[in-house]
Amino acid sequence: MKTLGIETSCDETAIAIYDSKKGIIGESIYSQIDIHAKYGGVVPELASRDHCVKIVDVLKDALGDLSIKKIDQIAYTSGPGLLGALLIGESFAQGLSTALDVPLIPINHLEGHLMSPMMEFPEIKMPFICLLVSGGHSMIVDVKDKGQYEIIGQSQDDAVGEAFDKVAKLLDLPYPGGPYIERLALEGKSDAFNFPRPMINSDDLNMSLSGLKTSVLYTVQKIPNMTEEIKSDIAASFQQAISDVLVAKIKKSIETTGRKEVIIAGGVAANKFLRSEFKKLEESLNVKVYYPGLKYCGDNAAMIAFVGSMMKPSIENDRSSNARARWPLDELKA
Ligand code: KG4
Ligand code: ZN
């Protein structure tokens, strides 16, 4: 069974093919980052237009020598994300499924992130805890079973990736700032600035990051002569503060739920410092922490094709539109 996955929810145009016996057998991803970087964030209309321009070539590249006639079903991201961008992927998926006369399966993008490490680590078994940290989402999900997701904690304001991007902007780093902060932090001292760890000791599993970002802003404003050394110290201290909050909340969620496996997914899961901090938790709590491979931390179509391959294609291609900007994980049907 070969599932073709299509991802266009934000600024990556991606297509991948998942074979239920062999795993991913073809994939292609085109990032629009250069288009949006000069605006300091994703411009929705430009994103939609560029998906239109690139999607056919991305399909050809993903297929390689494989004939499109070998595809058994089409899975595509139908939400959450930028509505215009989602509609491009949806209409492309509709067209393909009609031409090939194969089933069409709408997929929740967040479910793709949650499941992504299972592509590479088949030993992962549900239930597990997932920390999903990207540019638009920061949540802790209790993954009880396929389709049974309980959001047990989330950011009350900025997403973790968003906080990285905003702090990067304060330090004059390019967009998206996460990888630049990580690199700069390597040269800095993580205890140089004592930034706040909002809600770290709260009774719940929620987080708040806007106060941390504001504290960095005030710190930057008070420094008359910013140097590379100070910037590195700020980056390292900020990264330490955010890691402390995430590690504390995951520790609490393990204690609350008794789960033994944790998945860290989403763009921020690429951060090696964060991974090293979770390594310590793994050892102290005797749990196992999994990450997607680096190429599957950010948005990709492999995770969409993979989740599609697990679905029963019971949904008739009735030409209905399922694209939606908002689609919380706990509103999925099992
Ligand atoms: O999952 P993703 O590619 O897109 C969505 O937001 O859905 O995540 C992008 C976010 C950006 O905010 C980016 O700055 C952050 O992930 N990010 C990182 C790193 N790589 C990407 N944040 C911290 N450290 C990184 N190495
Ligand atoms: Zn994403």
Order of helices and strands: EEEHHEHEHEEEHHHHEHEH
* CATH class identity of the largest domain: Alpha Beta
Using only C-alpha atoms, the radius of gyration works out to: 20 Å
Low-confidence stretches: none
Q: How confident is the prediction overall: mean pLDDT?
A: 95
Summarize the main sheet.
5 strands, mixed
Numbering strands along the chain, what is their spatial order in the largest sheet? 3-2-1-4-5
- CATH overall fold name of the largest domain: Nucleotidyltransferase, domain 5
The tally of strands reads 10
**Number of helical elements:** 10
Gap between N and C termini, in Å?
A: 22 Å
Kindly report the name of the CATH homologous superfamily of the largest domain: ATPase, nucleotide binding domain
Give an overview in words.
The chain has 334 residues and is α/β, with parallel strands linked by helices. The protein has 2 domains: 2-114 and 300-331, ATPase, nucleotide binding domain (Nucleotidyltransferase, domain 5, 2-Layer Sandwich); 125-292, ATPase, nucleotide binding domain (Nucleotidyltransferase, domain 5, 2-Layer Sandwich). The chain is built from 10 helices and 10 strands. The protein has helices at 33-37, 44-63, 83-100, 109-120, 160-170, 178-185, 210-222, 228-257, 272-285, 302-310; strands spanning 2-7, 12-19, 23-31, 73-79, 104-108, 128-133, 138-145, 148-154, 261-265, 288-290. The strands form 2 sheets. A 5-stranded mixed β-sheet has the order 3-2-1-4-5, sandwiched between helices. Strands 8-7-6-9-10 form a 5-stranded mixed β-sheet, with helices on both faces. β4 (73-79), α3 (83-100) and β5 (104-108) form a beta-alpha-beta unit. The longest helix has 30 residues, at 228-257. Bound molecules: 5'-O-[(R)-(carboxyoxy)(hydroxy)phosphoryl]adenosine and zinc ion. The site of zinc ion has 5 residues, from α4. 5'-O-[(R)-(carboxyoxy)(hydroxy)phosphoryl]adenosine is lined by residues 10, 134-136, 161-162, 164-165, 176-179, 182, 266-268, 270-271, 298-299.
